[in-house]
Amino acid sequence: MRRLSFLLLAAVVGTFQAHSQTPPPPAGTIPMTANLEHPLMPIGTAAPDFALKGTDDKTHTLSEFSKGKVLVVMFESVHCPVSENYEGRMRALYDTYHGKGVEFVAINPNNPKAVRLDELGYTDLTDSPEDMKIRVRDRQIPWPYVSDGETQSTAQKFGAVATPHIFIFDSDRKLRYEGRIDDNQNEALVKVHDAHDAIEALLSGGAVAVPHRPAFGCSTKWLSKSGDVEREMTRIHAEPVELTPASTADLTALRANSGDKVTVVHFWSTAGQNADKDFADLQTTWRMYRGRSYNFVTVDTDAPANTAKATDFLHAQYASSKNLQLAPADLKAVQSAFGSTWQPNEEFTAVIAPGGKLVYAHKGPVDILEVRHAILGSFTDNPHYPGQAEYWASRTK
């Protein structure tokens, strides 16, 4: 029995050593290894059955994709910048091979309850089924996109370690390739087109030369990580909340935005009709993006007699952003600096790029996705996620 245990251990170690000999993922990405709790599907395994609801509100099953010569299963997510950067390349694969007998389906493995707010710094949306529908609509994604987040049972069968993570099956629906799509996030630097080469090999009746390449991207957000989300919210609720008087000079300096941060300024009052929801959405956005070059300032336009009420409101929102209070008498001068006018009890939201360019200005209730798109489109590229600036600049209107 002891010898058998030793042999099993040696086999496992040998497997991981074999994987470690594969060339590492490109610099700036997150290398992913097989999860012992959710082991990676071995090459040669039959495609597991599934029945998952898609963004089209239809239930999609494995049998739906039985006619194609090849089946490509793509694990992707809405929130992950690496997955976002590969959407265009996945579309190129689809456009090239869908008419040649290759079936495509995408699965979002993530449970949105297991994704912290500080992990949403490169997205406008979460991984919820509702937000998946918005991404499909905005990016005109043609393949079925299904959610496995509720139970994650399908992702466990595959052992999907990251988004993106691609699995390619032959005509008998046996796994012949799994791993990365290609070897570099920067499309201009790609040298090895792994997914393309695997599909070509299978269509020609040949064998896939390299059946495994480690996937890289954002780790699968298993529901077991939901405790991290709860701990994050506990920290957020413990952050200090302050309301500070501000002058017209303070607000004029905000409008100039001479620093290197994308800045959002939101004017509000406790008399606003939609203040609660809009303020909460903007605070969530602050928590999403504050790990980047981002600054969020709220400006209360209540009369001094309502200062206590405004402070209570901020505490109820756990508003740890920078919160200023502007005297109503100074509002007109500040409006001149922002190039717009609004009532003291009316909302006004501005997104200002570094250097002072006003990229978004809106009076009235907030469309939070419009605000986030303006913010994301104003960030410069992070070298860890090349292509983000182009991705948001090319967003379908």
UniProtKB/TrEMBL annotation:
PROSITE patterns membership: THIOREDOXIN_2
Keyword Hydrolase tagged: no
SUPFAM superfamilies named among the record's database cross-references: Thioredoxin-like (SSF52833)
Gene3D superfamilies hit by this protein: Glutaredoxin
GO molecular function annotations of the record: antioxidant activity; oxidoreductase activity
UniProtKB keywords: Signal
Residues making up the signal peptide according to the UniProt record: 1-20
A Pfam family of this chain: AhpC-TSA
Domain of life, per lineage: Bacteria
This protein's name: Peroxiredoxin
Matching InterPro entries: AhpC/TSA, PRX-like1, Thioredoxin-like_sf, Thioredoxin_domain
Keyword Iron: no
Originating species: Terriglobus roseus
